[in-house]
Backbone:
């Protein structure tokens, strides 16, 4: 199931050192995504940590940074309890161009996680950003009717929590101009 990552338990001091975690907390949860240990999200527990804080943290960090969006994952991503902003890129069905676009999306997601996420909003109130791609050929009419996407490599930024789509007038890795519209 999407967003059901495995849990591992460790008391190794190397983890505390690597992630600069306080040894005074009762325990900590660490979310590692896409093999990137340099930008881990963590939640340190103490006597004041509430169930709501834990639940919100788990919901916020349960999705991968970048993934393919399709019928099995659309609702889980677009209607996630954490209300993520979704950067959606259309891709070709197969081939070198698809591989290049997917790799670019993954790279942008990793770069966002390392630098952009904390730069633009305070960590405590940050909205999670999920980068996704959809098969332009398979979902052509749906992408066009829902988001105005007419071809591969087009990018839209979707916020289903407020029924807005930010349509970017660019292709992946180009400089973008953003137009705002209502879903």
Residues:
């Amino acid at each position: 199931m999407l967003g059901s990552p495995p849990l591992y338990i460790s008391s190794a001091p190397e983890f505390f050192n690597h992630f600069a975690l306080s040894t005074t907390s009762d325990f900590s949860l660490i979310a590692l995504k896409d093999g990137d240990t340099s930008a881990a999200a963590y939640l340190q527990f103490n006597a004041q940590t509430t169930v709501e804080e834990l639940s919100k943290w788990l919901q916020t960090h349960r999705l991968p940074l970048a993934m393919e969006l399709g019928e099995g994952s659309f609702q889980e991503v677009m209607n996630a309890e954490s209300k993520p902003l979704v950067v959606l890129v259309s891709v070709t069905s197969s081939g070198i161009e698809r591989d290049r676009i997917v790799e670019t999306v993954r790279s942008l997601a990793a770069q966002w996680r390392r630098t952009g996420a904390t730069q633009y909003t305070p960590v405590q109130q940050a909205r999670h950003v999920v980068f996704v791609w959809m098969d332009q050929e398979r979902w052509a009419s749906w992408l066009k009717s829902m988001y105005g996407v007419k071809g591969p490599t087009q990018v839209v930024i979707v916020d289903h929590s407020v029924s807005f789509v930010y349509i970017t007038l660019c292709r992946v890795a180009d400089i973008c101009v953003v137009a705002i519209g209502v879903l």
